[in-house]
Design goal:
This protein is an alpha/beta fold and about 230 residues long. The chain has eight helices and eight strands, in the order βαβαβαβαββαβαβαα. It has one domain: Aldolase class I (TIM Barrel), CATH 3.20.20.70. The structure holds D-xylitol-5-phosphate and zinc ion (ZN).
Length: about 230
């Protein structure tokens, strides 16, 4: 069965003075991606739960909250209470991954685990059965507009194999450097939920860019395997 391809524009690339307008521009997308950074885990400081709450009041799209913070064990409830629909936590930051993932799910919110570019897929062996989403970082966390790291492609294939071996099919999300130049290879390698910041909000017509990325992704999903020929 061909995967449905979903696009999650990241508001890290938005001019916050026009946030409501920008959220309106992307109402054809599948999620709004909100990058929470704490200035400790990441060399950048961004949004907290109040931004999640504000977005909840401005869009009907589900909110994909990406926690790049050193203490998700303690603060995950803030983001659930603020209206997150999907919360992803970094493997590198969580002390009790099983507990956090199952807590998020017990609250009726989708739960995902994120791996940094240098964290291998095998670290998911004992959590893959429990997650709704796995997200692979294809840039180092911190900023929009960075170049896609090619090593993400073999990791995606390894992740698909791991999922197959466990008989599970979480959403496979990729974050960083997604654009018309990269989306086909990323989908071909197994992704079905694509975050895009600068590609969408840097475009003259963000709504058209969301459509373009989804169409390119769907085409790549339909012909998986042939891109490698
Ligand atoms: C990076 C963030 C990404 C970022 C993606 O740490 O997690 O979500 O906004 O931006 P682009 O798509 O411009 O690489
Ligand atoms: Zn992100």
């Amino acid at each position: 069965m061909t995967d449905r391809i979903m696009i999650a524009p990241s508001i890290l690339s938005v001019n916050l003075g026009h946030l409501a307008h920008s959220l309106d521009d992307i109402k054809g997308a599948d999620y709004v991606h909100i990058d929470v950074m704490d200035g400790h885990f990441t060399p950048n400081l961004t949004f907290g739960p109040e931004m999640v709450r504000a977005c909840k009041g401005m869009t009907d799209l589900p909110l994909d909250v990406h926690l790049m913070i050193t203490n998700p064990d303690e603060t995950v409830p803030w983001y659930i209470e603020a209206g997150a629909d999907l919360i992803t936590v970094h493997y590198e930051t969580v002390s009790h991954l099983n507990r956090v993932v199952n807590y998020i799910k017990a609250c009726g919110v989708k739960a995902g685990v994120v791996l940094n570019p240098s964290t291998p897929v095998c670290m998911l062996e004992n959590i893959i059965d429990d997650v709704d989403v796995v997200m692979l970082m294809s840039v180092n966390p911190g900023f929009s507009g960075q170049s896609f790291i090619e090593g993400t492609l073999p990791k995606l294939r390894a992740l698909r194999e791991l999922c197959g071996a466990h008989g599970v099919s979480p959403l496979i999300e990729v974050d960083g450097g997604i654009s018309p130049a990269t989306i086909e290879r990323v989908v071909d390698a197994g992704a079905n939920l694509l975050v895009a910041g600068s590609a969408v909000f840097g475009a003259d017509d963000p709504a058209a860019m969301v459509e373009k990325l989804r169409t390119m992704g769907e085409r790549a999903a339909a012909s998986r395997g042939s891109l490698r020929a």
